[in-house]
Amino acid sequence: MKKVLVVLFFVFSIFSFADTWLEDHIEDILEQKYEYISDGTTRLELDIDVHERKNDVLINVKVDDDYRNVKQNFNRSYYNKVIKEIEGTAKKEANGKKVIIKSIF
Question: What pLDDT is stored for residue 67 in this prediction?
Fold first, then answer.
């Protein structure tokens, strides 16, 4: 009886965490590479949130609230380049799902 309960618990835990594996995986990779960005003179921290919805991967990127005064001096074209890199990295990891990025500077 104990073995059956352990197996059932194990199976249940696999299915309960299966939905968030891809979004957690993508978010970990993106935060590791792009949590802090610098244009050479100014450094920003990005908040990156990843959500999975059916066949879409939704990525919200915004500048951390603590850096709102610093972002005025940040090179906007470099920020846009980083957003394109984030999109490319996410597409590689999304297993064929459509990647949608919402960026707030």
Answer: 79
